[in-house]
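Quick question: who can interpret this fold?

. . .
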Amino acid sequence: MPTIKTISNFTINKGLVNELIFTIKKDQTLLPIIINPSDTFKLVLFHLDTDSIESEIDMDNTNLDGFIEVYDAPSGRIMITLNTHLTNRLIKERGPKVDKYYLKPTYRIAIDCDTADNGKFVIKLRNVSID
């Protein structure tokens, strides 16, 4: 069974290219993994209210929505690029004026990782807001 790592809150900028850099750490340590050429990463963006999939992004660089690439292999860093083809269609929700228009999460993200250094695991971003 894969390990699951969780991040509580996250924001994507609507209508812009978003370049997100993640450092992948080894289980139960602060040390980064070393990314090997055989390692794979896949991002799945889900609607919170329906659990339906909005987009799936992987490392093949043919998806108009975006792609994942190794940013710094020895430091365990990947870069996820979300193109405007995706971010333009994302749903943004805000709270009322009396509550200072806080952002409401409308999506969640799961990043499926399969690495030689750390095995299979999932990174979950539970509350993804659009701004």
Summary: The longest strand covers residues 119-130.
